[in-house]
Write a structure and sequence with these properties.
2 copies of one chain form a homodimer. With about 300 residues, chain A is of the alpha+beta class. The first copy, chain A, has helices spanning about 5-10, 40, 60-75, 85-95, 140-145, 175-185, 225-240, 250-255, 285-300; strands spanning about 20, 25-30, 35, 45-55, 55-60, 100-110, 125-135, 150, 190, 205-210, 215, 240-245, 255-260, 265-275, 275, 305. The interface between A and B is large, with 55 and 56 residues.
């Protein structure tokens, strides 16, 4: 790359609070805004993905890019960026932030039909925004070490028939209500059931139970999490059985251990559910091993794609 | 008001494409943007309302303001603006646009928890944005005169237990999917059922059936529409019976007439459902009378609050 285009690209680390990309343009994250009239906001007509950067490298970048494209296709969104464009753009926003540990989000949303066109999303173009900001923990490291205190929400998860949870989305009304329930109950977070009483997921994470040495995660109402996939990979390394199948509430309550997984937190043990204490109020042995191994493997460069900071 | 504050307020009609208010500041609607990191967008943690301005007057402004406040309270949002502030602000954006016929939207959304605070909406402040733009028809006047062609969507409405439809919200994933179904089927719009097969609402409107001279609208899964209320008021004027009760799909299909109601369209007759022709492909007599009377009453200043353009 010659000097002039390098200059056009902006300096490495020039926006340490975070860098963003909005429909073709780079800017500090504080300047990244969307029109209040666009349907991405006004109809939550948007899908997104989040990839982590840890010690200068993306984690499972290909998996996130593939899922993001799958989500866009399911919503019939065709932004102008190819997967290669998106990959280069993500490198660029992390480069512009200079961050070695970053939370990197990419959204694809519909704008709005042009004036005079029928009031149908078919007529609205889709565009991409993204940002890289300093790493965000869903739960602080202190909470993770202590163990998360969760509750079972009264609010049921939006059913997959209405909004597909495998297309990562911002339909968080149920999850937000559950977070208020948690705050009222003095819990750190909430786990949601579907209308039939089966475990689904929580606000921003997949849920697992450990039972008789097997690690089990729900087959319904949940995102196909990439950290969930990593947990199962680690189970394989440990020779632990893992399953994706229905988890009724009774089985959740009787589990040996409960753990959560998300990009913005890795593997997070739960030690209390509705005040019931698990494992003597300490992270259970399987959860603790998985968490420890997860970060050890990350430090080894597991599924890592070094960010191009040049 | 003295000259200097009048100047500070901006000129009448200075932004004819639309005027907006974002968290305390007035601007052209094209400049009205929200941070891509705010939860109003990122978690669809937002409620809204829409009031129409027709021939220089708001329609049922008090009803819209009361519903907006009720929605904010249910979501535990406490923006800094009082109802009097919101009322004055709405007058101001219409005044700045100079529009005599306008679509006026007001949103209240949560920002995001401050850095370091727990990841819970309890810790995020709420703020208000609003805009007034030239009047928008949900369906063109030509379509309304011809009659709307609707279909019954395969996608079920998000259940009230997960997201309360009486708190006007942007959880439109199901409605958006239904609009794609409609586009694929060559229909103008779609009507959604709940999981038990009862009629709820459509993308942006309440639905009614006419049966044996009574006007009936669903009791579940639907917004408590202010235009719906107006339709019932007109029924009273005509001496027509009206009911809010369950409407199973079979009854929808066998209805004498079907009509829709929304702020951005008033009363809109449906003439086809899934290709089945109603009323010889012309708006039915009750629908036509209601539509005609609705606009006649509007022209008389029914529930009108003149905009302060001074």
């Amino acid at each position: 790359m010659d000097a002039s285009s390098a200059e056009k690209r902006g300096r490495v680390g020039q926006w340490p609070d975070g860098a963003a990309y909005v429909d073709g343009n780079y800017m500090p994250v504080g300047d990244a805004r969307i029109p209040i009239t666009d349907w991405g906001y006004r109809r939550s007509d948007v899908t997104y993905d989040v990839v982590g950067v840890w010690d200068g490298a993306f984690f499972r970048l290909d998996d996130h890019l593939a899922r993001f494209r799958r989500s866009m296709t399911r919503l019939r969104m065709q932004p102008r960026e190819s997967d290669a464009d998106i990959r280069a753009m993500l490198h660029e926003i992390v480069r512009l932030s200079g961050l070695r540990r970053a939370y990197v989000a990419m959204d694809c949303m519909r704008a709005r039909p042009p004036r005079g066109a029928p009031y149908n999303p078919v007529h609205a173009r889709a565009y991409i925004v993204a940002f890289a900001v300093p790493w965000v923990w869903l739960f602080s490291e202190e909470l993770q070490a202590r163990g998360i205190h969760a509750m079972v929400a009264n609010t049921p998860r939006i059913p997959p028939e209405s909004v597909d949870p495998t297309v990562k989305n911002f339909h968080w009304g149920d999850l937000t209500r559950a977070l208020f329930e948690a705050a009222d109950a003095g819990a750190d977070t909430a786990l949601l059931l579907d209308a039939d009483g089966f475990l689904t997921e929580g606000p921003g994470f997949n849920v697992f139970i450990v039972r008789d040495g097997a690690v089990i995660s729900p087959d319904r109402g949940a995102l196909e999490g990439i950290t969930r996939k990593s947990v199962f990979d680690l189970c394989d390394e440990f020779g632990l059985r893992h399953e994706i199948r229905p988890v009724p509430l009774a089985e959740l309550r009787e589990a040996d251990e409960i753990l959560l997984a998300t990009t913005a937190g890795g593997v997070m043990p739960v030690t209390r559910l509705d005040g019931r204490i698990f494992g003597n109020d300490r992270p259970g042995p399987v959860s603790a091993r998985l968490r420890e191994r997860f970060w050890a493997r990350r430090a080894e460069g597991w599924h890592a794609t070094p960010v191009d900071y040049t």
